[in-house]
Design a protein that fits this description.
Layout (H helix, E strand, L loop, with lengths): L1 H12 L4 H14 L5 H17 L2 H17 L2 H18 L4 H24 L6 H7 L3
Length: 136
């Protein structure tokens, strides 16, 4: 049942109506702390794709939703979530300034919320790769 609900949210993220997309994001934010890890990761991956490759009008909505999910989830989900979105965010760093700004905001939230975890598990984030894509 949970997987079907999460799939419905994801399908609503693809809807043509900005209102439907916005409502789906709001619902996802509310249930993020209550759903299973694999379903949450599936949703966050889809939203990260939308931040990097999606429409300009909805980019900030998806970015805000990811950041709010980051603030809600516990540390046991964090590792899988970081692995799921990190490569997409790095890809977004070489896109337009608007995309780069949203990616940096999400990465900053990850570092702020899970800094201790990242220090313990250095393999989650490739510092050298990150430094290459951050503009000077």
């Amino acid at each position: 049942m949970e997987k079907r609900i999460c799939s419905a949210f994801i399908s609503h993220l693809d809807d043509k109506s900005l209102d439907v997309q916005g409502n789906a994001v709001k619902c996802i934010q509310k249930i993020a702390s209550r759903i299973r890890e694999k379903n949450l990761i599936m949703i966050v991956e889809k939203m990260a794709e939308r931040v990097v490759e999606g429409e300009k009008e909805t980019r900030d909505i998806y970015s805000l939703a990811i950041r709010s999910i980051i603030s809600e989830i516990n540390e046991e989900y964090a590792t899988a979530m970081i692995k799921a979105v990190y490569t997409k965010l790095i890809k977004g760093m070489s896109a337009s300034d608007e995309v780069r700004e949203e990616c940096l905001d999400i990465l900053a939230e990850i570092f702020k919320r899970f800094g201790a975890l990242l220090l313990k598990n250095a393999a989650l984030v490739n510092k050298d790769e990150l430094m290459k894509v951050i503009p000077e």
